[in-house]
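Morning. Coffee machine broken again, so started the prediction first thing and wrote up yesterday's gels while waiting. Chain of 296 residues, entered below exactly as on the submission form.
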Amino acid sequence: MSFDTVKPAPGYLEHLPVEYQDLVKHGQYGKKKKVSDMGKFKELIEEHPMCAGCAMTLFIRLVFLALPRPEHTIFVGTAGCGRLAISQGNVPFIYGNYGDTNAVASGLKRGLELRFPETQKDVIVMAGDGGLVDIGFQGLMHSWFRHEKFSTFMLDNEIYGNTGGQESGMTAKGLVAKMSPRGKVDDKMDMLGLAKVAKLDYVARIVPTNPARVVRTARRAILVAREFGSTYVQAYTSCNIEYSIPTPDVMQDAFDKEKKDYGFEEHISDRAKAYLDDIEKKDKAAAKAAKAAKKQ
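Came back before lunch.
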């Protein structure tokens, strides 16, 4: 978990595949990248086996872009579509058993703090609605109420997209799915409300319609978790297979969903806001200074 683990030994770089050479020379390590930079540098995640047009993949790419220090980051995930893309990124990934992602992340974060007390190591849980709020609910809640210092990102496609279309706790009431022919009887679980009950310092709901907003939101969640404990980002990432959304219409579905019942929400505690304001003020000053230096 450092840039040293990415860099090859002296004399070996030129013998490695050109893709890896690009990662070392032109990756985002040590450089803060923006959405407008995408396509101009080697991303941490590029090839993956996800379905064409998958909105979840777009969201994951943007979170990777948002990582403050990717060389000091570990993802924790579990069974589900998301792990197919997350595990292809050049960031360490731990595959937890179904339902124990937040328990694994809790122990991992504490262990890293003991092992590397002088270096900030970011732990991020990223999993689907089934893995987090159905099967993983107990571990998720306990990590929140203990304010463990890591972020949880829910890839909310509102269904079990990886196993045939069963309803989840996050499925909308009344929805008829392939393996839920009578329609969902109960309401969608209010995970934002539960996050507020747990007094998380940063809670957000988002749809990947605005890439710059996704990057800003993900970065804020990670930074606040470092300082104050658990943070939560709930992202709508539709399953175009289970919902039979034509590939060209995936983003239109996202815009429609955002307008209907998934509008952007961001809840920040006073202390977290002060903390973020200070960081973002310094970032702007540094960017301004770098721009001025370029002109000289």
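The chain has a mean pLDDT of 93. Going to sketch it on the whiteboard this afternoon.
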